[in-house]
Structures are given as C-alpha cells and as structure tokens.
Amino acid sequence: MAAAETAGAAAPGGGGCSPAGGGSVPVLFCFSVFARPSSVPHGAGYELLIQKFLSLYGDQIDMHRKFVVQLFAEEWSQYIDLPKGFLVSERCKVRLVPLQIQMTTLGNLTPSSTVFFCCDMQERFRPAIKYFGDIISVGQRLLQGARLLGIPVIVTEQYPKGLGSTVQEIDLTGAKLVLPKTKFSMVLPEVEAALAEIPGVRSIVLFGVETHVCIQQTALELIGRGLEVHIVADATSSRSMMDRMFALERLSRTGIIVTTSEAILLQLVADKEHPKFKEIQNLIKASAPESGLLSKV
C-alpha cells in the first residue's frame, strides 16, 4: 500500500479526543463495507492506526493504492481528514478511504471478487411493477449464472409479512443470505457481516425493485463504502418508467455502472475457454427474448 496520507490542520473543536488517562482505548476501524471494533494504546497516533488497519484488513487492502485516514467528528456529524498530530485519547471511530480508483480495474468483473444482490423481487409487486415478468426471467438467469460460477448471492425481502416472499419463479437455492428488511437499502448489519466473511469483495452486481428506491439507495450506500456497483438494467424496474429512467441517469453520473445481464455473465467468464462458458452461453440462448425494457433506459 502506498503511504496513506493525512490532510489539513486540526479541525475546529479539535476533531480529536480529550485526555482520558493511560491504558488501551476502544476504536471502531471502518474500511469499505466493514466495521470492526478493536483497541489501541492511549496516545496512539497515525502510524499505530495504520498498523491496526493492516492487521484487521490486510487481505482486503490493495497495497498499491493510496489511502487517507479519517476521523468521525461529532461536531460535524461526518468524517473529517485525520488532523495532524492526532493522538487517540478516548473512544472514537476512524476509517480508511481510497484516494484514487485504479482505472485498469474499473468496471472489470471477476467471480472471485463479485457478489450478486437480489433486491425485493416479491409477489405483491407483480401487478404494480412495469415489465415485472421480464425482470423475473432475467433475475433467474443471473442467479443460475451465479450458481454456475460460484458467486455468492445475497437476497432481501421488503416487509415480507405484508408484501410476500420472493416470487416462486426465482430459485434461491444456494443463496448466502435471504433477509427480511424494512429499511429501503439492502445495506443492513447482517449484509455487512455476510460481506465481511467473503475475502476480496470488490464488485456488487445489483438487480431487483424498485429502481428509484431500494436499488438507488443500496447502490449509493455501497459506493460510499468503496465498492464498485453494477446495476443490471434489464433486471430492474419501477412502477413508473420516469422514476426508473431518472434513477438510472442519476446513478450512472455517480460512477455506478449500468449494464445488462448478458454483458455481466460474459464478462464474468471472459474467455470461450472458460470451463463454464458453454453452460453460460446455453443459459443466455435459452433466456426469454428481449422485451421493451431496455428501450426505456
């Protein structure tokens, strides 16, 4: 890892901690979608924090990138760059943030660093969501591809007591997690814990409903945690095509990749010599013909 950097002088109000005596101090160390509690000696500075990040997340950190350490400042209710000369003296929360994206990997997908997110494909949405039958078909294609390629799948269901379970056409066999929720975003503590169990996660392939609500809020939370997000345009929809269109436009402007199921699956195999290429090819050929949904992107 290139040397992590600090920025700026101490924040107004200190941005740090008041003296709290010797011993160890509890610190929450955050990186990407993960948050792990630990402790450091009282008076620990920048170098010890970096060492702790490496001990907690060494297998997740790209050693060739630059990072900045940030401290959560209660005064501002957000993270600030770690003030120069900062020393830990009371419990606090810090995070490690990449300073730059490696353009050589931007948009690339590999099965070993990818997780599929299937969002709220539930029975009660069937009559309300435009092209719902089509996105069910494409969603099933993606989940079959995930099983063939050994890609973990995380599934959520929005308030299933009232909105029903995932539709029967979608086979959830082998899903790593199927989770009920009331929050619109899929980024729940249980999901973050499941991601923490998967080494080297870099990319999330996201599909389901509704594009402008749960899909949008999930995508924005994920990129805020440093993950690359691919939204499958032919496997996501809303009740209103206007809502869907503006959500996809907004998300693409934030750096989220809007793509298609076929592009995703073929990018994941990457080579006709891949041992699963024929099965993926047959899966694509056997899928339902293209609907009018992509013309609405």
TrEMBL record:
InterPro entries: Isochorismatase-like_dom, Isochorismatase-like_sf, Isochorismatase_domain
CDD domains: YcaC_related
Domain Isochorismatase-like, first and last residues per copy: 114-262
Organism superkingdom: Eukaryota
SUPFAM superfamilies: Isochorismatase-like hydrolases (SSF52499)
Family the entry assigns: Belongs to the isochorismatase family.
Protein name per the record: Isochorismatase domain-containing protein 1
